[in-house]
Amino acid sequence: MDQSGTDRENHPYVGMWVTKDGYIRHELLPDGRYDEARGSRKSAYQGRYCIEGDHIEYLDDTGFTADGDFRDGILYHAGMILYREE
């Protein structure tokens, strides 16, 4: 469950988010973990995430933190724009 008590398995933001060129891929897993691939480098970054409303907070396994916002079906994160992979 996320902080709002929502079941992550069915959360609308769980799944794959990809930059337009496909270079960066964020997979938001139902267990509260994420896996980010960059180019051919799979699992370049991994860690935990928490979603509250339309805001996401990331905590990388190395201790790095970042955040982002979902607006109109798009994820804006650290200067990147990611789209839901169909």
UniProtKB/TrEMBL annotation:
<dbReference type="Pfam" id="PF11512">
    <property type="entry name" value="Atu4866"/>
</dbReference>
<protein>
    <recommendedName>
        <fullName>Protein Atu4866</fullName>
    </recommendedName>
</protein>
<dbReference type="InterPro" id="IPR038646">
    <property type="entry name" value="Atu4866-like_sf"/>
</dbReference>
<dbReference type="InterPro" id="IPR020955">
    <property type="entry name" value="Uncharacterised_Atu4866"/>
</dbReference>
